[in-house]
Specification:
The chain has about 50 residues and is mostly helical. The chain has 2 helices and no strands. The longest helix is centred in the last third of the chain and has 20 residues.
Length: about 50
C-alpha cells in the first residue's frame, strides 16, 4: 500500500473508540468531522445489519 495516512494508524486498534477517534482526527483535526464520520458509520452498520 502506498503513502497517505497509513503510517499514522500503526499501533492503533480501530475497534477501540479512543483509537478510532485518534485515527479520524489524524485525517481531519475537527471534532465536528469525527462526529459526522461516526454518524455515517453507525448508519451504515445499522443498514448492513438489516440485510
Amino acid at each position: 500500500m502506498g503513502g497517505g495516512a497509513t503510517p499514522v494508524l500503526r499501533g492503533l486498534d480501530l475497534r477501540d473508540g479512543a483509537d478510532w477517534t485518534q485515527a479520524v482526527l489524524h485525517y481531519n483535526a475537527s471534532d465536528a468531522y469525527v462526529r459526522k464520520v461516526f454518524n455515517v458509520a453507525e448508519a451504515y452498520a445499522r443498514s448492513a445489519s438489516r440485510g
